[in-house]
Amino acid sequence: MQPITTQQIEAGYALAKERYAALGVDTEAAMTALAAIPIALHAWQGDDVRGFESADAQLTGGGIQATGNYPGRARTADELRADLDQALRLIPGKHRVNLQAIQGDFGGKVERNNMRPEHFSRWMDWAKERGLGLDFNPSYFSHPKADDGFTLTSRDEGNRQFWIEHGIASRKIGEAFGKALGTPCVTNIWIPDGSKDIPVDRKSPRELLARSLDAILAEKLDSRYNLDAVEGKLFGLGLESYTAGSHEFYLGYAVTRKILLCYDTGHFHPTEVVSDKLSAALTFLDQMLLHISRGVRWDSDHVVILSDELQAIAQELVRGKYLNRVHISLDFFDASMNRVAAWVIGARSMLKALLLALLEPFESLRTFENAGDYTARLAMLEELKTLPFGTVWDYYCLKQSAPVGAQWLDEVKQYEKTVLAQRG
Ligand code: RNT
Ligand code: ZN
């Protein structure tokens, strides 16, 4: 690919700046605002959600699936950190990394209820050196005690207690991340528990879930270090008829316990959109977590692209001034392509959506709306779509010392040749 010159980027930007200024939009302010938004890269894209508990760890159960067999999967936490380093170099701005409990440096068998901050000390050192924040997720899948599809809702008290202890251990790890890195860790609980076929008792698992969560959250942790979130879902693979941790369940739970609610954009009926739900939930919640994913016909976890819905979500975050209340993480796992590229595509798309939203003349649009001038509102929304957004994005990448345009792909191809292809 013929690289674009700095001069060309700056000339394009100068014109774009004027076009936006004519609408009262300050492109410099938009870029400053964008630079302050961290996106959490979900580490589980790099290892196909297998983790490092054993050399032959597999993703089993949980109603989720990574499909594809592209070479280069990270087989160790060291490989995963190297891959994340490579991805982060290609994404403008300062971001975060979101870990699964199964991705620690265990050095031998460690049970999930015995996981401790020391199993993540290498991650903390790594993040500290790079000035990155870390987020965390207890892993309630790929485990013999989750094989029957029940964790925090298990009728077996011993099993339930085991998974409660995993939740408690995870919050302690989150707290350690927050203390070490000076930025709170969002510790997000998602469980797969549900039923393939029509259950007769929908009530008991939900009552058990509330009790289990209360036990996990019993100890109050300082919100400067750890923030708790709960993630609901409509259905999972093999769990089509019932999910104990449904959206209504967790909305009620998060509101009453004053914790964060997580919306995963793949976890709703395909015709439902998260963009319409944010302002509803945020009327009653202080903070939220987003798992940005792309479902194709089902919760397929495809790589995030700059879709209409991604733009609508970004618009809601910007228009509602929610950016300081909503934590953004990516969440998808595609094993059919270069996994480093998958992170880069997803993160750059998220950032583009946010920049587009930051470049919107929201107040003028709202003035039209409040005056009942829906003609002007629609006309302007359509005109905005062809403003020279791309040149502002290019300039932003340049200023952030990130590759401009598809140049990043050359670097990924090089990394694939020299590093990923050497993995068996
Ligand atoms: C699964 C949830 C959950 C997982 C990760 C692996 O449907 O989205 O967030 O993707 O915990
Ligand atoms: Zn998710």
Q: What does the model show?
A:
With 424 residues, the protein is of the alpha/beta class. It has a single domain (37-347), classed as TIM Barrel. 42% of the residues lie in helices and 12% in strands. The chain has 14 helices and twelve strands. The protein has helices at residues 6-21, 27-35, 77-89, 121-130, 157-181, 203-216, 247-257, 278-281, 308-319, 339-358, 362-370, 374-384, 389-399, 407-418, and strands at residues 39-42, 96-100, 133-137, 185-189, 194-195, 226-231, 242-243, 260-264, 288-292, 294-296, 298-302, 326-330. Strands 3-2-1-12-9-8-6-4 form an eight-stranded parallel sheet. Strand 10 and strand 11 form a beta hairpin. Helix 5 (157-181) crosses helix 6, helix 9 (308-319) packs across helix 10 and helix 11 runs antiparallel to helix 12 (374-384). The longest helix is centred in the middle third of the chain and has 25 residues, at 157-181. It is globular and about 65 Å long. It starts with 5 loop residues before the first helix and ends in a 6-residue tail after the last helix. The model has no long low-confidence stretch (mean pLDDT 97). L-rhamnitol binds next to loops. It is found in: Cytoplasm. Its EC number is 5.3.1.14.
Main CATH class: Alpha Beta
Low-confidence segments, given as residue ranges, are none
CATH topology: TIM Barrel
CATH superfamily: Divalent-metal-dependent TIM barrel enzymes
Report the biggest beta sheet as strand number plus sense, adding barrel if it closes: 8 strands, parallel
Question: Which SSEs are present, and which pair or pack?
Answer:
Layout: H1 6-21, H2 27-35, E1 39-42, H3 77-89, E2 96-100, H4 121-130, E3 133-137, H5 157-181, E4 185-189, E5 194-195, H6 203-216, E6 226-231, E7 242-243, H7 247-257, E8 260-264, H8 278-281, E9 288-292, E10 294-296, E11 298-302, H9 308-319, E12 326-330, H10 339-358, H11 362-370, H12 374-384, H13 389-399, H14 407-418
The structure holds L-rhamnitol and zinc ion.
